[in-house]
Design brief:
- The chain is α/β, with parallel strands linked by helices.
- The protein has two domains: 148 residues, Diaminopimelate Epimerase, Chain A, domain 1, CATH 3.10.310.50; 64 residues, no CATH class.
- 59% of the residues lie in helices and 10% in strands.
- It has a four-stranded mixed beta sheet with strand order 3-2-1-4, sandwiched between helices.
- α3 packs antiparallel against α4 and α8 runs antiparallel to α9.
- The radius of gyration is 24 Å and the shape is elongated.
- The two termini are 16 Å apart.
- The relative contact order is 0.22.
């Protein structure tokens, strides 16, 4: 699933309204981001390409060994056909893995995906200036579609207000909706829960509650 399709313009507006509503409860600043994938995973694509190359090579070898193929089964011709089959198989497998995410996900380790999601989320945290609020109250909700993972990063005061257990429960809530394909609800439910929990320790200021960070959803078609 492409990030831009998962949250189209209408969905983004709905999420942005949810951000604004959550921020009426708390002085924390909430930022939402979604990425098609967090890593490139070239190794996985190469492995699938290699596997398909072996299949293509085997099929070519069998086909060239049959009597009907005598006209093109000389040593030089056979080697040429088999080499071409292997190369085309590798290319086809690599391209297929690039577009068919379930296939690629089969050969990518969970640890590698976790590392890439953490790297990408930290990059977005920095790019979006989530750590630059006056009170250290920024919170990032980062969703990565290929990995089907969510990471919630909170700046110092926001993290103290939530606590590790609450951050984990918010992440688990988001993942539940994400894995059901409920992309908008992934953000909206998490935003509501985060706003309510943050309100206890970081309530909205009656006199002044400036909107320091944009409410716009950050969409990354490729890895951040």
């Amino acid at each position: 699933m492409h990030a831009a399709k998962a949250v189209d313009q209408r969905a983004r507006e709905e999420i942005e309204r949810a951000v604004a509503e959550a921020e009426t409860l708390t002085s924390a600043e909430l930022v939402c981001a979604i990425a098609t994938e967090s890593g490139r995973y070239d190794r996985a694509e190469s492995l699938i390409g290699f596997a398909l190359a072996l299949v293509a090579l085997s099929l070519a070898h069998v086909a060239l060994a049959e009597p009907a193929a005598d006209w093109m089964s000389g040593p030089s011709l056979a080697l040429g056909w088999e080499t071409a089959a292997a190369v085309l198989g590798f290319i086809a497998g690599s391209v297929l893995a690039s577009y068919v995410h379930p296939l690629r996900r089969m050969v990518v380790g969970a640890r590698e995906m976790e590392q890439e999601v953490q790297r990408a989320a930290r990059s977005v945290f920095a790019q979006a200036s989530v750590a630059l609020t006056r009170g250290g109250t920024g919170v990032l909700i980062y969703v990565s579609l290929f990995e089907r993972m969510v990471l919630i990063l909170a700046d110092s005061r926001a993290y103290q207000a939530l606590g590790a257990a609450s951050v984990e429960s918010l992440r688990d809530l988001a993942v539940q909706h994400l894995r059901r394909g409920e992309y908008v609800e992934t953000f909206i439910r998490t935003l509501r829960a985060a706003g309510e929990r943050l309100a206890a320790s970081l309530p909205a200021q009656r006199q002044s509650n400036p909107d320091e960070l944009s409410n716009k959803v950050l969409v990354f078609p490729v890895r951040p």
